[in-house]
Structures are given as C-alpha cells and as structure tokens.
Design brief:
Organism: Trichophyton equinum (strain ATCC MYA-4606 / CBS 127.97) (Horse ringworm fungus)
Protein name: Mitochondrial Rho GTPase 1
Number of domains: 5
Radius of gyration: 41 Å
Mean pLDDT: 81
Structural class: alpha/beta
CATH superfamily of the largest domain: P-loop containing nucleotide triphosphate hydrolases
Low-confidence stretches: 596-600, 656-672, 702-716
Number of helices: 27
Keywords: Calcium, GTP-binding, Hydrolase, Membrane, Metal-binding, Mitochondrion, Mitochondrion outer membrane, Nucleotide-binding, Repeat, Transmembrane, Transmembrane helix
Strand content: 5-15%
CATH architecture of the largest domain: 3-Layer(aba) Sandwich
Strand order of the largest sheet: 2-3-1-4-5-6
Largest sheet: 6 strands, mixed
Main location: membrane
Distance between the termini: 67 Å
Number of strands: 20
CATH topology of the largest domain: Rossmann fold
Shape: elongated
Helix content: 40-55%
Function: Mitochondrial GTPase involved in mitochondrial trafficking. Probably involved in control of anterograde transport of mitochondria and their subcellular distribution.
Oligomer: single chain
Length: about 775
C-alpha cells in the first residue's frame, strides 16, 4: 500500500482540526487554532498496519467557497474520516455528506466519527449508538466502521485514525455484507479454495497438522494447543457437526472467518488472503499467476522434475478409488480451486486427446502427457494453473511457479548430425483427405479402429509417450491440422520454431492420394526445412499405382531419403514401430531430411575453419623449424660427422655459435647460476606439460563433439587458442634450446605432431 491519504471532513465546528492537533501533539490544545490545518504526514507507529509506510492527513473546510478544494482532496484520498458532533451535524451525514461523496464518484471507505463524546452522558451514548450509527451503516454500504472520540479527553483519537488506516489496508466491503450479515459470495469462494489447498489429504477436513501448517504459512508462528482448543470450541458452539475427530470442515472454517469480520478483526482474514497471494479485489496477483517466463527462439518449455513430481502427487491424491484413472468426479475435484479446465484442453476435446483406460478414465500416463503438451504449446497456461492448484517451490533461488518448468537447449540447425535436447516433440500429420490421419491418431492412443469415414474439420491433437531404443521415453504430440492446415503451414516462422517433424501420409490403396504430397511441398517450399517421414497407410489393402508424376518410391529416392515410404496399417500390431520411427526422426532430425547437402553458409564456415587452422599450424611449424629445430639438427650433424675436416667442422660450429642458437663454450657457471637455470628449466617443462594436456583435451573434445552444432560454432575459438598455445610454447622452446635442453625440444616436437593430428581429424570430418 505505501502511503495512506486520509481526508478529514464534516460540518464546521465538529472538531476536525482539534482531532488532528490532538493526534499530533498527544494532548488537547486549548488555544484557538487555525480553521484549516496544513497537510500532516506521520510515520508508522506501533499498531500501524505492516504495509503502511506513511500516513498523510488532510484537513478540509465545509464552507461553500472552499467546495472545489474539498472535491479535489476527496478524489485524491484513500479513506474519508467523516466527523459529526451533534444532532444537526449527524442529520447532515445522511442528507448531505454521503450523497455528496457519491455525486463526486468517490468510491473509498468512510469512517464515521462521533466527536465530542465528553459532552454526552453514559446512557445517552449507549442510546445514540443504537439509534444513530447502525441505521446509517445499514443504508450506506461505503461506511466501513464507526467510533466515538473526544479530542478534549484524547479518547479514541489514535483509534480513529487507525481505523482509517485499517479501512484502506484491510477493507471490509469485499468480505462482508453488513445488510445480510453474511460473507459475500466472492469471499466464500476464495476461502473455500484456501481450505481446499490446506486440506493436504483431500478428506474434507483440516486436521491438527494441517491447521498448524496453515497457521505457520499465514501468521508465521506456532499455534498452541490451548488456542486450537478454543478455536474448535468457538466453532462447535455455532456448528456442532463441523468439528469432528477428523478435524474442522469447510463450513466451520467459513464460520470462523465470519466471526473474525463481525468482531472487527477482519485484518486477520486479510492476512490469510494475502498469504495466498490475493489482492484487495479478491483476485490472485498478476505476477503470481503469470510470472515472467520467456522461451528463446528454437527452444521449448518442459516440465521440470519438480513439476512432474507435483502433478504425480496430485494425481495419486485425487484418485480416491485407486483404479489408476481419474473419472469425471475426481477431475472436478482436482480443478476445484481453478476456473475450470484450461481452454486449450476443451478445444482439444480432453480427455479424448490423451491416454485413457478401458473405463474411459485418464491414466497417470495420460495425465502427465496432457500437461507436457500444455507446457510445450502454452507454458503460460501451465504456470497459471500450477498457481491455482497450489504448487509450492522449495528452491530458495526460485520461489515462483517457474521452478516447475525448464527451458530446453536451442536447436538451430537440424541438418547437423546429433540428438536434440528435448523430451517433448511435435509432429504435424498432413495428407490427402481420407488418407487415414485420424485413424493414425486413434492408434497412437491405443484406440480401436472405426471403418466409417468422418472428415476432420477442427484441428485434432493426440499426445502419448513413446519408448525409444535404449529405454528412454519421450512425449510426442501428433497434430492433425484440419481446416487450419493452410494457415498453420503458411506461418513459416512459427512452423519452423515449434514443429519437430512432419509426417506425410497417403492411402496406398487410393491412386489419387499421393499426388497431394508433392503439390503441398511445392506450395510451401519451407517444408523442406523440416525432418520428414513418408507413410503409406492402409497397407492391409491392395496397393495400387499412384496417379502422380513420380511413384512414392521414386519420389523419396529423388529426394535422397534414407528409405522408401513406410507401409503400415493401423490394424497391425507393428503400428507402434511407426511412432518410434517418427519420434526418432524428431530426436535425430539429421536422419530424416529430404536433402543431405550442406547449406552454403555451413560450407563456407567449414572451409573458413579449415583454412584458418591450416594457416595457424603451418605458421607455428615454420617458426619452430627455422628458429629451433633446424639449427639444432645442424649442430648435431656437425658434431657427429667425423669425415669433415677439423677446420670446416670448427667453422660450422663457430657460425652456429655466432647465430646464438646454442650456447657457446664458456667457463663453468657458478653454482647459483646453475641452480637458477635448472629451476627455470623445471618451470618451463611443467608449463609445456600443461600445454600438452590442454592440447590433448582440445583434441578429444574436437573428436568427440565434431558433429555437435555448438562445437561447430566454437571451433574458431578453439583453433585461436591452439595457435596461441603453439606460439607460446615455441617461444619458450627457443629460450630452452639456447640453454641446451634437448629433451624439452623433443617434447615440443611431439606437441607439433599432436597439432597435426588435430588438423587431420578436423579436415577428415569436414571433407
């Protein structure tokens, strides 16, 4: 809330300014004060609601000439403190002030304050409460509360302004109908949802453990046994049947909150509501329902292990008959705290879109598959319903519902060999009318075959798990596009982003069925960018020659596909192998592309990497040979060729000494110099050993990941680092060669050979 702005108004002489002065100074000011006080801002004090940082109090004048200023301040206020002090000013509350507020369109709570109570007798005060305040509160619903005060005796001065703060931070109007003395329907609905979420075992009662958890979540403190007994006794006095050995039922829970409101403790109810992320208009907070969650291009959203665990627990909790399926009553129980089934589920004709048992009840496999599809197609819907269903994150770094979801690794180029990092894949099933697409979706859900033909108008979806070779499972979505096929296929960007594989189906017994596929691919050329599977359905019937320019086998051969169309029938048990084949085509897209040629961009990148690598390695090899290896070899030859004349041998060695490639004959070095040289040699040897290990690691990574897209994108960086390592090692070797360390020279030669092996592996992969 932040700042609460209180507008104090009423007839002249009712003591408005005296109330404000008494609040600020703490005592009654006997001296005459100005007619209208300046605006006062007070910080929070003991008893101030937690979400109030400052309180601004505005004094006003009731004179006609100040009416414009009054109207302006009323519109800016959060709450109105309406003061009266005698019978005349009381009558004007109903006759002038409250109708005046309505005429301005001011819809804020009003606290009615009967000031100068020190002038009344005790009996008269009690009679005034009955005869004056209650009738006004009944007629005008904007009145939040009433209080008697006295600026002279400082009676209820602080309490009057506290009621104003509470009227803003804990409004009673959304909760309670004072005319009917009942909780409003919206409040009842919200409290029932809270009761449902707190009823962990779904038995319809809050037991002691659940009440304790509720207490800690809302109020952050332990509930003593004495307080728990008092709560149960309070409910039992009004509703004896609502308190049982199993706990408190929903009626008792609602009655307890109604008592809080009627006793003026409606802040207790608001603390409960805000602990469950409700706003002042009894709706869930927008950031709670729709937290920020962006899916990058070429990535997808999937349920995380925490999300799957929550949905599994929810399924097991609501499967009351333990038959392994959710019937209509159990589904209604699950979605009780939500607005109902997600709209996308209704559009997909749930539960016919997922796996059901023989009784038609949604199985656990179908339940998880449906949520996996929803997360894939609309992650924001999943986040919204996880909030409704009461998902709680135990991740301290991510306390929102987004902890139930995860982002998959982007897939940029599907023509490159390798598996995609997804567990949910989408396949569009296209083909001529009557080719058997609907029957294929029924077989995917293990439904029976219906021979009668019914054209598909509305899009239809089926989702199920597929077990891949090796035991890994994935969720696959088969989507029959219906009348939306042209619109979906025409949206190139969305199609290439979401679709993982496209299945082209035709009726092998219908001579006119296959011709639809080449026409479709010619109309939408970007379909060539998707992995493709060609399927000849109705293989149990007689195969016929297709009336097309090319027969199916010739067409797929011309496209350089890995094989001819798959001939299957939905009546065969082997139909499940087709779904595995489609799923593998989605998981390893490079195996299902119509063309195997690399795109131009990929070719130029490969050539650029190869040329850069060759140049770097060649330059390093030339430097090492000219500056280190060649002089060393010449020196060794000069020392071991006895047939050379002594003068020529001496001249050769002298020339080599002059070029400073090996140390000249000098006097023995001192012990300290020899020790320092040995230490430097050891340091250089250790550094070269590390470079060797790094080069080995680079070689292994390039060999193991040569077919991974990310490794392709980063290869230039790898070779740049490799070139730097070689140049650095060559420089160090030069210094060591000058010191006569021949072993280190041989080690560096091995490094150069290793670099050549790396180039051989990479060039072999590219070419």
């Amino acid at each position: 809330m932040g700042t609460v702005r209180i507008c104090v108004c009423g007839d002249e002489g009712t003591g408005k300014s005296s109330l404000i002065t008494s609040l600020v100074k703490g005592v009654f000011v006997t001296n005459k004060i100005q007619a209208v006080l300046p605006q006062v801002t007070i910080p929070p004090t003991i008893g101030t609601p937690d979400n109030v940082t400052t309180t601004t109090i505005v004094d006003t004048s009731a004179l006609p000439q100040d009416r414009n200023i009054l109207a302006k301040e009323l519109r800016k206020s959060n709450v109105i403190l309406l003061v009266y002090s005698d019978h005349y000013s009381y009558e004007r509350v109903a006759l002038f002030w409250l109708p005046y507020f309505r005429s301005l369109g001011v819809n804020v709570p009003v606290v009615l304050c009967a000031n100068k109570s020190d002038l009344l007798h005790e009996h008269g005060e009690s009679q005034s409460i009955e005869e004056e305040m209650l009738p006004i509160m009944t007629e005008f619903k904007e009145i939040d509360s009433c209080i008697r005060s006295s600026a002279r005796t400082h009676r209820n001065v602080n309490e009057s302004f506290f009621l104003c703060q509470k009227a803003v931070t804990y409004p009673i109007s959304p909760l309670y109908d004072s005319k009917e003395s009942v909780l409003k329907p919206a409040a009842v609905h919200v409290l029932r949802r809270i009761f449902y979420l707190c009823d962990r075992d779904r038995d319809g009662y809050l037991n002691d453990s659940e009440i304790e958890s509720f207490q800690k979540r809302c109020f952050g403190k332990h509930l003593s046994k004495e307080d728990l007994v008092n709560i149960k006794d309070t409910i039992r006095r009004a509703l004896p049947d609502s308190v049982t050995p199993s706990g408190i039922d929903a009626k008792g829970f609602l009655h307890l909150n109604k008592l809080y409101v009627e006793k003026g403790r409606h802040e207790t109810v608001w603390i409960i509501l805000r602990a469950f992320q409700y706003t002042d208009n009894l709706s869930l907070q927008e950031e709670f329902l729709h937290p920020r969650f962006e899916v990058p291009p070429f990535s997808s959203a999937e349920l995380s292990p925490a999300g799957y665990r929550f949905l599994v627990d929810l399924f097991l909790l609501c499967d009351k008959d333990n038959d392994g399926g959710l019937n209509e009553e159990e589904l209604a129980s699950i979605f009780a705290p939500t607005p109902g089934l997600p709209p996308s589920w209704t559009e997909d004709s749930f539960p016919s879109s997922t796996v059901r048992n023989e009784a038609g009840h949604v199985t656990l496999q179908g339940w998880l598959a449906q949520w996996s599809m929803t997360t894939f197609t609309s992650p924001k819907t999943t986040l919204e319903y996880l909030a409704y269903l009461g998902f709680e994150s135990f991740d301290r770094n991510n306390p929102t519902t987004t902890a139930a979801l995860q982002i998959t690794k982007p897939r940029k180029r599907r023509r490159r060999p390798g598996r995609v990092g997804r567990n949910v894949v989408l396949c569009h099933v296209v083909g001529a009318p009557g080719s058997g697409k609907s029957a294929l979706l029924d077989a995917f859900l293990s439904r029976g075959f219906y021979p009668s033909y019914r054209p598909t108008i509305q899009p239809r979806t089926a989702v199920n798990t597929v077990e891949l070779p090796g035991g890994k499972q994935c969720y696959m979505i088969l989507d029959e596009l219906g009348e939306l096929e042209p619109a979906i296929l025409d949206n190139e960007a969305k199609l290439l982003d979401q679709c993982d594989v496209i299945a082209y189906t035709y009726d092998s017994s219908d001579p006119d069925s296959f011709a639809y596929i080449p026409k479709l691919r010619a109309k939408y050329p970007h379909l060539e960018e998707l992995p493709s599977v060609f399927i000849a359905l109705k293989a149990d019937l007689d195969r016929t020659t297709q009336r097309a320019e090319l027969q199916p086998d010739e067409y797929t051969s011309k496209l350089n596909m890995s094989g001819p169309p798959l001939h299957v029938s939905v009546t065969w048990n082997s139909i499940q192998e087709l779904f595995v084949h489609i799923a593998e085509a989605a998981m390893e897209p490079s195996t299902a592309f119509p063309r195997v040629e690399e795109d131009a961009e990929g070719k130029w990148m490969a050539w650029g990497i190869a040329i850069g690598a060759v140049v770097c390695a060649s330059a390093a090899a030339v430097v090492i040979w000219r500056r280190v290896l060649k002089p060393l070899v010449l020196t060794l030859l000069a020392e071991h060729l006895p047939h050379l004349p002594r003068r020529q041998k001496s001249q050769l060695i002298t020339n080599l000494h002059y070029r400073r490639f090996i140390p000249s004959a000098q006097k023995p070095a001192k012990m300290s110099d020899a020790y320092e040289r040995e230490r430097q040699n050891n340091s250089l040897l250790e550094s070269l050993s590390q470079k060797t290990s790094a080069l080995k690691s680079v070689t292994v990574n390039i060999y193991d990941n040569a077919r991974d897209q990310e490794m392709i994108d980063n290869t230039s960086d790898v070779f740049s680092s490799l070139s730097t390592n070689i140049k650095s090692s060559a420089s160090r070797l030069t210094r060591m060669a000058r010191q006569g360390d021949k072993i280190a020279v041989l080690k560096l030669a091995a490094i150069v050979v290793g670099a050549g092996l790396v180039l051989w592996v990479v060039l072999g992969w590219i070419f």
